[in-house]
Specification:
heterodimer; A: alpha+beta; Alpha-D-Glucose-1,6-Bisphosphate, Chain A, domain 4; two-stranded antiparallel sheet; about 30% strand; B: about 400 residues; 13 helices; about 30% helix
Chain lengths: ~220, ~400
């Protein structure tokens, strides 16, 4: 059988079966829907670093507090396990997490195994078409219930947006060596409405500190 | 330090606030020696730009002396004289690498707000709403400049501040507007709006090879400046004046090769459609008043280029898209890719090809700024451009 289109000088092979479930047999797949007490978030970013470097950054769980909002401390407790502390103001929640799949330079999956958060996630590092950096795709799942509700109340961001913002911080840090911030800059009197707007815009959530040594 | 704060629609106040400090490794603190009020600051003053918070320090056209640099800023040191671009760019993302600096991915801490409105977030700006980053601006005595390793242009000549200050926004913005108009040698170009950006658009159109420039406004002092640099002016407020007829008359019935809307979202008009937009925006059915845009589309020749440096923020109504399609026009627009233009334009100033100070009408102190916003909005005192000396106690010379 002859091909209907032979002339495509720069075409690259399509992803075969992206594990974050974005493409299957050349068809785009929409993200999983919330339901059965689970909420899902899928988000992606195009980052000008290699998949290997980005994998290394993500895999270094103890440095997560540098770029993940309100993660106060992460301690490695074993080859594949770690202990996470999330803090907001005076309150905190803690859980243990375990890496399920670890494919260097390509993919990591994890889930919580005990504690006050019930979550699971996957991150994929794929070379972008045309050699234009790395597409990082995060798929994360939270089991709703008292914990997730508590999380949202405590954290002041819904968990979906937190995943999106964390990937944004990861990208900014990996590309530019810092996470953009305005907290701590001068301003005049905000008044009641100004303060309310700050909360609504998510400006009261502490921007993670970053670390310039991470930049290329 | 003293700084000009937005305290609600129609209210600017000069207040004493804490001095800025270094917050990130690529920051610098600049002691501001000259700053200015931009036409686009009026959109904040008039409440057209959402996500402003009371207490926001405004201003995005400034220059000064580097006071302090963060540990990762290697290209600047204390004492350097710099002009700061109004857009903030990281220098490393895909867009910065493509020289699309105002589309930088990594400088807006509130990117999610702009994503919700525009699909994706562009670069952050100084002093221009929280959707645009929420960074404190430059109508102040000091400013924190993020990504000082990428943005600020070092000035290593002895030209006075006023000659190089407008490299911070309006000169590059006017220049990019003319570049976006895809001017070819011998072209006729029509420019709506003869404010500061319009002036530098006209000047740049000539520098890029235009044979004739037609300039449209209603304010005599602005039209006079436009004639001073060689444009033919059309005063649309004259009783018998019809802009479309004027443009046809001046182009042999063909239309200009390029039209440039240097007016943006708060256009004024004496016509019925002006009233239509005013009513719709006042009851929130429309956000912007695209009168100049409509005219520019209508006036443009077949296959011509429309360039839009004028700021638009939201939704517009009754845009003659059929005319745009029917004539097969090209549209180019957007925030200025500042970092591309600052150095070459500094070169033109140094060579004496352009002296941007010709637009300045007022030189004031920080304390005078709140009142001057009203003067600027209402176009009193023949105002054409206001420059501020943030350290002058009384009226600056």
């Amino acid at each position: 059988m002859s091909e209907p289109l032979m002339e495509k000088p720069n075409a690259e092979a399509n992803p075969t079966a992206s594990t974050a479930g974005i493409v299957m047999d050349n068809r785009y797949l929409p993200p999983p829907q919330d339901g059965d007490g689970k909420i899902w978030v899928r988000t992606s970013a195009l980052i000008q670093r290699s998949p290997e470097e980005l994998y290394e950054l993500w895999h270094d769980v103890e440095s997560a507090p540098k770029w993940q909002e309100q993660i106060a401390q992460v301690t490695r407790t074993g080859e594949m396990t770690s202990h996470w502390v999330m803090r907001s103001g005076d309150s905190s929640i803690e859980w243990n997490s375990m890496i399920l799949a670890d494919e260097p330079g390509r993919r990591i999956t994890w889930r919580s195994i005990s504690g006050e958060s019930n979550n699971a996630g996957e991150v994929i590092f794929e070379p972008a078409p045309g050699g234009r950096g790395t597409i990082v795709i995060v798929l994360q799942e939270f089991r709703l219930g008292k914990m997730a509700a508590l999380w949202e109340t405590m954290v002041g961001r819904n968990p979906k947006q937190a995943v999106i913002e964390n990937l944004r911080h990861f990208k900014a840090l990996a590309e530019s060596g810092e996470i953009p911030r305005t907290q701590g800059q001068p301003h005049g009197d905000r008044g009641f409405v100004g303060g309310l707007k700050q909360s609504v815009y998510g400006e009261k959530i502490a921007t993670p500190p970053g670390d310039s040594r991470i930049a290329s | 330090m003293k700084a000009v704060c937005w305290m609600g629609t129609g209210t600017m106040k000069t207040q004493t606030v804490p001095d800025p400090v270094l917050l990130n490794p690529h920051d610098a603190i600049v002691r501001i020696t000259r700053t200015a009020i931009c036409g686009s600051d009026l959109h904040l003053y008039d409440g057209f730009i959402p996500t402003m918070e009371s207490g926001d320090i405004v201003g995005h056209e400034f220059m000064g002396i580097v006071e302090e640099v963060g540990p990762e800023v290697k290209n600047l040191q204390r004492g350097d004289r710099v002009v700061v671009p109004f857009t903030i760019a990281c220098g490393n993302c895909l867009f910065c690498k493509k020289q699309l600096w105002s589309a930088c991915d990594n400088t807006n801490p509130n990117a999610h707000l702009m994503e919700a409105a525009y699909g994706y977030s562009g670069s952050a700006l100084f002093g221009y709403s929280h959707m645009m980053g929420g960074y404190a601006g430059g109508q102040a005595q000091y400013a924190r400049v993020p990504f000082a390793n990428v943005g600020p242009l070092k000035i290593e000549n002895d030209l006075p501040d006023e000659k190089v200050l407008f490299l911070s926004d309006i000169l590059p913005t006017g220049y990019m507007a003319a570049e976006n108009a895809q001017i070819e040698e011998g072209d006729t170009v029509a420019v709506w709006g003869c404010g500061p950006v319009g002036q530098f658009t006209i000047a740049s159109a000539f520098m890029l090879g235009a044979a004739r420039v037609i300039a449209i406004d209603r304010l005599p002092e602005r039209l006079a400046l436009a004639r001073k640099i060689g444009a033919i002016t059309v005063d649309y407020s004259q009783d018998e004046a019809d802009v479309l007829t004027a443009i046809k008359d001046l182009t042999g019935g063909t239309g200009p090769d390029s039209c440039i809307d240097a007016v943006g979202l708060e256009a004024h008009s004496t016509e019925l459609q002006g009233i239509y937009d005013k009513v719709k925006t006042s009851v929130m059915l429309e956000q912007d008043r695209p009168i100049a845009l409509r005219q520019a589309i209508q006036a443009l020749r077949k296959g011509g280029t429309l360039s839009i440096p004028g700021v638009y923020g939201g939704l517009i109504d009754k845009v003659p898209f059929g005319a745009a399609f029917g004539k097969g026009i090209t549209m180019k627009m957007g925030q200025t890719h500042m970092h591309r233009y600052m150095k070459p334009l500094l070169g033109r100033i140094e060579k004496g090809e352009i002296d941007p100070t010709y637009i300045i009408s007022h030189r004031i102190t920080l304390d005078e700024v709140p009142d001057m916003y009203k003067v600027w909005r209402d176009k009193q005192q023949n105002v054409t451009k206001i420059v501020i000396d943030p350290w002058a106690e009384k009226k600056a010379a």
